[in-house]
Amino acid sequence: MKVAVIGAGSWGTALAHVLGAAGHDAMLWARKQEVCDGINGMHRNPRYLKDAVLSERVHATSCYEEALEDVRAVVVVTPSSILRQVARDIAPYVDADTPIAICSKGVEAETGFLPVEIFEAELGNRNRIAALTGPNHAEEVVKGIASGTVVASTSADTARFFQELFATEWFRTYVSDDIVGAEVCAAFKNVIAIAVGAAYGFGMGDNTAALIMTRGLAEMSRLVEACGGSAMTCLGLAGVGDLIATCTSEHSRNRTFGYRMAQGTTLEQYRAETHMVVEGALASKTLGALAEMHQVELPITSMVRSVLWEGADPKVAAATLFDRSLKPEFY
User: Fold this and answer.
1) What is the pLDDT of residue 275?
2) Per the residue annotation, which of 2, 32, 143, 189 is the catalytic one?
């Protein structure tokens, strides 16, 4: 079947390749014509995953109408900050019951909406929408290295549809009905990865990283439950699985940015060098607003936000976090 993939960054490119390997025709929408030319002419993305040779079933266009013509499903892989505009842009070309999988990770700053809620507000029919998330570094997925992901939807039929759509012998798919939990976890782990990267950048060790990851997992579970999700989701692929991959891997842009930040690199400098969006930077703000709405305490998230957006000194912020009053492990 023909599937449109909206967004030709690293993850969009890798997922289009997965779809091609699964026997589908993937039409990748790219903003830049040079990306379309590279994919259509040489089966390579000249900006992201440059060394990967993509499936011959992957093609690209910069035209929404062409990308979405006669598609059986849509996969959205764009930065979370532009999701609402993307939903509005594709609305004229998408039928009311076309299945949509959202792979973007974040919370809308103005509303506190999760990605699925944004698309429901703009396109309607929540039951045809799913979230795909998990410990999936694009650099490994595009090489066919064994990976697993979870597809969450309020509709069991929609979850199973995308489970079967993406499944290959090396990309294993699972389903969940906790779409809220999956999406909160997806946004949250990026913030914790920045904190872990910063800790290593300051010369701290694996003990510190483990401390940040597990306390970050505690923060994640508190917010997931407050938003109506299940704490059990935090123990699955969308939660601890993605947290481990993002906090420990050299492929992680959020961890790498945290490391660089500790050594003086600004967010703007990192973006200019890598052409990549650091989702955890924005999430540190938007998750904070969500936590305030639900009256949930998120100390690590607050520390990252204070450094990135409020001008706090990273070392002072870290020391303040460590000097907090002693508490039970679970509260």
Assistant:
1) 80
2) 189
